[in-house]
Amino acid sequence: MLRIRLCALLGLAAAALGSGVAWAAHSAKINTSRTFAGYELTDSKGIKAATVTFVVPTITCKKNYSGVGPSVVIASTVHHGTYSDSGGGVAVVCQNRQPNYVALPIVDGVNYNDGNVPIAPGDKVTLTVKYGGKTVVTLVDDTTHQVDQHTGKGSLGEAAYFGDNGVEINHQGVGIDPFTSTSFSAAELNGQPIGKQSAQRYEWVDNHHVVLVTASALSHKEDFTTTFHHSS
To answer: Could you point out which of 61, 124, 132, 143 has its C-alpha 20 to 30 Å from the C-alpha of 18?
Structure first.
């Protein structure tokens, strides 16, 4: 079985958390990342819950290995500046030029690609993360009504990322091939639409600053679309 995981956003999280409230003054700015397109939010009082719904895109496999991960991922402080991810989504990947669509819940840094819920392109998926006495990650395929849920130790989130994430296959980061535009809806943090908070927009660029994936402006304060532009 392939070992598939979302690329770590922890460097991005550390930079965002270190900048503090200054982010709010640049809400119109589109930031850049090497592995992410979408929206980033922080909460000084702690993230207790996050949810988003998206439609699984279709990927075109021009390379042997490539992929993208529509998801919501939350970074939590573990101890003195170290971080652990929880959340997840769907790994939309190519193996030997064949597409694979894999449900990928993440709890305390562990990516569960155990195939409990079969995923197909075009499925509508809802991912919910809740913190408290324990961390609970629930992935629901709204199209087939199947559920994949995992739990872990309690923690409190600090930075959340809604959108498309990079993918690792067998511990190696891979590029991206063309995929269909992905609609995200009902993106909420702590029970409020992300557009009512200081959401920062990111576009995904390569080392030469060529734009690979963009995220649209928010509509209805909680909906947006990510769009592929170039392979990497």
So the answer is: 132
CA distance 107 to 111: 7
DSSP 219: B
Helix (H, G, I), strand (E, B) or coil at 194: helix
Q: Using an 8 Å Cβ cutoff, are 167 and 35 in contact?
A: no
Compute how many other C-beta atoms are within 10 angstroms of the C-beta atom of residue 96.
9
**Is residue 71's pLDDT more than 60?**
yes
Q: Report which of residues 21 and 135 the model is more confident about.
A: 135
Element at 101 (helix H, strand E)? strand 98-107
pTM: 0.90
Hey, what are 146's tokens?
A: 């199947």
Report whether pLDDT(161) > 50: yes
Spatial separation of the C-alpha atoms in residues 105 and 139, rounded to whole Å: 7
